[in-house]
Amino acid sequence: MRLLRRQLKSIWTGLDRRALAKDVATAGALGCVGDFICQGAVEQRETIDWRRFVSVGSFEAIYIGGFFHFLCQAFPPAVCAVGRALEASSARSGVGAALQVEGSSAHALGCSLADNVHDGSLMIPSYFVGVGLMQGDALDATLGNLRREWLASYLAGCSFWIPVMWLNFRVVPAPYRVRVMAVSNTCWSVIIDFLAHRSRGDVT
């Protein structure tokens, strides 16, 4: 645990502000692209809801580009820590050792599953509430929308993000993972954007 704490602390102390700025800009721009596609091509709206457009882009910049910049770096040391704990048990020593080999299929799967837990518990609720409030919805309305659409969003997220993030942690160098994730998130933002707005009457 001491090693894990040191590794997590180093993520903050070794902050690369230029990389963070690039991640924020990339995620925000691609979030806007995703909402534009969702409104124009999927929902076939005659006019773009610009407040919604800005809300989605702002959320993606802050959450995916900002918060996830740090969280993405935390997954590998956390998975290695789980591997060390499992290795202490002789019955699971093989699994534990495999989880500690960064870049391996097992380690990448561990990071992908950790991200999946984060998606269901934090990202999806944050998206519904954050975007809802920024576009002017009442808090009780955003929470009601989240309750209606959480399961569909989570199941869609599992089928999309588990293989995408496995590939991301398997083959993409660490400095580029958030930007690769942001590119993939352009597709995902269309999906979750649609799910988050269909119950509001935005989607006919």
Report on this model:
- This protein has 204 residues and is mainly alpha-helical.
- It contains seven helices and no strands.
- The protein has helices spanning 2-13, 17-42, 50-87, 93-99, 105-134, 139-171, 177-198.
- Helix 1 packs antiparallel against helix 3, helix 2 packs parallel to helix 7 and helix 3 (50-87) packs antiparallel against helix 5 (105-134).
- The longest helix has 38 residues, at 50-87.
- The radius of gyration is 18 Å and the shape is elongated.
- It starts with a helix and ends in a 6-residue tail after the last helix.
- The relative contact order is 0.15.
Task: Kindly list the characteristics that best describe this protein.
204 residues, mainly alpha
Question: Any chance you could write out the topology, listing elements then pairs?
Answer:
Elements: H1 2-13, H2 17-42, H3 50-87, H4 93-99, H5 105-134, H6 139-171, H7 177-198
Helix pairs in contact: 1-3, 2-3, 2-7, 3-4, 3-5, 3-7, 5-6, 6-7
- Total number of beta strands: 0
Q: Name the beta content range.
A: under 5%
Shape assignment: elongated
Portion in helices: over 70%
Give the H and E element order.
HHHHHHH
Number of helices: 7
What would you say about this model in short?
The protein is mainly alpha-helical. The protein is built from seven helices and no strands. The protein has helices spanning 2-13, 17-42, 50-87, 93-99, 105-134, 139-171, 177-198.
